[in-house]
Amino acid sequence: MLRFTSVLLELVLLALAPSSLSAQDKFVVFGGYSYLRPPVTVAEEIVTCVGPVFCPPPSIPSFVTNRQNLNGWELSATYRFLPFLGIAADFSGHYGSAISGYPSRAHQYTYLFGPEISLPSRVSPFAHVLFGGTHQSVIPGSFAIPVSGTYTAIASSTDSAFATSFGAGIDLKLVPHLWIRPIQLDYLITRLGSNTQNQARVSAGVVFHF
Q1: Minimal CA–CA distance to 152: which of 96, 98, 107?
Q2: Cβ atoms of 184 and 202 closer than 8 Å
Q3: Is the pLDDT of residue 165 over 80?
């Protein structure tokens, strides 16, 4: 009888353990550093000034695209309705120079949502497919304008478009509720300027489980 009671108690504990773990891991929140290398398109205008007063209108802008190194942040929250399957909301912002060697700034934001699968263990790999939008802006910097002569100016611009991300990463458990994400890699596809841009996003940070 004692043996039967012991076995029954063990079975009850095993049955309750997954639900307890699932309840603690319903919400997964990530925040950390993120790196993006997107193609940034700038509109260059040639301006010719004659003397300190007369500067005719700039020429028709020419568009130049170059890849830039942008640094920023990423935040995401995942609701797991099953231990291995959930819905993620992902937001990121990246900042840097719009064109190398010229005073200018580029900002790019993403807003993405989609399914995420993961392996619920102390070493937890995951993968997701996210859909949403992106917004990129180019802001000219200030510089000394020559009294006379020809110089190149950058026009400010903004653009928003559809975005898709295919990504994967790994989480490592430190203590209850606190994990670390050493790496997350995303293949980000955007449609800025009616063209397709392919870019890599790399992130790392801390993860909280609730």
Answers
A1: 98
A2: yes
A3: yes
